[in-house]
Amino acid sequence: MFFKILPIKTGIVLILSILRISTGFSQHQHATQMEKKPDPLSFAPVFATMLTDPELKDYKMESSLMTVAPGGQDTVAHRHDAELFGYIVEGKVEIGLDKGVPKTYTAGQMFYEKRNVMHSLTRNPDPTTPASVLIIFIIKNGRPGYTKEYK
Asked: In this protein, which residues make up the domain named Cupin type-2 (predicted)?
């Protein structure tokens, strides 16, 4: 026989101990999952089209609406192999490029990021209201729109 039959009392104690350990573990996992914060940025596609000017052959315009959660902040350094324009539809955002001092833009203002400049910060300083930014890329086919900086 591979195992010995335990007395009933010992078996019940063993089973209860196992259940207590597994319940505690699953509660810990659940608490960890609950603590995970939602992404500070979300994107919804708006419009995309190829450009028709012969001098801009193989270039396209892509746009999306970026929402920055209240108090949301993204510090993942990255680059866009494209020209990028951002129009603040509502709210306020802080944009940091090349790890420099961030600039603040408010509704009705627009910012520009040169191709392949390092983008190091996007932040909504308002803790209660989301910010919306219309993002417009002018990008050549085949180029990556987003490249994370690895160190």
From this structure: 65-137
